[in-house]
Here is the input.
Amino acid sequence: MSVKMEKLKTAVEEVLGDKLVSAKIALDELTVVCKAADTLAVMTALRDHDTLSFEQCIDVCGMDYSAYKDQPWDGLRFAVVYHLLSLKHNARIRVRIFAEDDSFPVVPSVVDIWSAANWFEREAFDLYGIVFDGHPDLRRLLTDYGFVGHPFRKDFPLSGHVEMRYDAAQQRVIYQPVTIEPREITPRIIREENYGG
Here is the structure.
């Protein structure tokens, strides 16, 4: 661990206090976990406190921990991960916020703190179904308006629920149940009986 990361961890622990669930340094990167209820207070402190000054939001992404590292996961299922940058201190931090309800994941929007989070939050909503409370225009970004489900959830079927095609008889695009049979995607190698000698 570098001295710079240790100093950053100490500063974050002092500034966030009891709003911090955990802080961990791994691979010379600091990851902090906070509760969803404290999201706006934590993010504002990270941006505005002079010893931190994380003035840029580089990325926001959704996470589905239902089968983390191919093992059963005993914590909350959905999280939002924020990657922040401090130009003033040449430092980066990762902030993880878990949604409290697995059946309807909701976290506060940080668009009022960093406007760059707008499209990232829409993407996480579209692909994971995470709702960002207070977002000014939360609607699908990458999938079709009639798309059913959220394709990055680990329980989403590989072939989807419905398929779309153009019907020449009706002269319009129609939706219908998926007709693809589940198939094995591992290639089979067929060799001759005396292959290799």
Summary: The radius of gyration is 22 Å. The chain has three helices and nine strands. Helices lie at 3-16, 39-48, 117-128. The chain has a mean pLDDT of 87.
